[in-house]
Inverse folding.
């Protein structure tokens, strides 16, 4: 996890603000960062659950990922909500998700009809 986080941090530190990555749509640095953080948190959770380890993702990082990638997420404790959004857990009376997609692209504000 530490190596992955350092690799992501180094990539973000050296990437220009105008660079775009591709993840089904062109992604700027903020969405690339959010996707990278989500991947690290979620796969670390997958691994630690499988190994029976007591670990939970950081609530503040979950909030940042939810705000950027899951803008329609229901309210609730951020770790549980992120796990629910990605089909990894139950959330109150909501049915468990069997598929999901995060919102990588934001509307182009420069060309918006508003």
């Amino acid at each position: 996890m530490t190596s992955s986080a350092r690799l992501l941090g180094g990539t973000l530190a050296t990437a220009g603000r105008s660079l775009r990555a591709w993840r089904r749509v062109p992604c700027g640095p903020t969405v690339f960062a959010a996707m990278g953080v989500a991947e690290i948190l979620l796969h670390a959770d997958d691994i630690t659950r499988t190994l029976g380890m007591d670990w939970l993702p950081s609530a503040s990082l979950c909030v940042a990922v939810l705000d950027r990638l899951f803008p329609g997420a229901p309210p609730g404790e951020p770790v549980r909500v992120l796990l629910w959004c990605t089909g990894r857990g139950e959330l109150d009376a909501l049915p468990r998700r069997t598929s999901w997609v995060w919102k990588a692209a934001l509307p182009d504000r420069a060309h918006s009809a508003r």
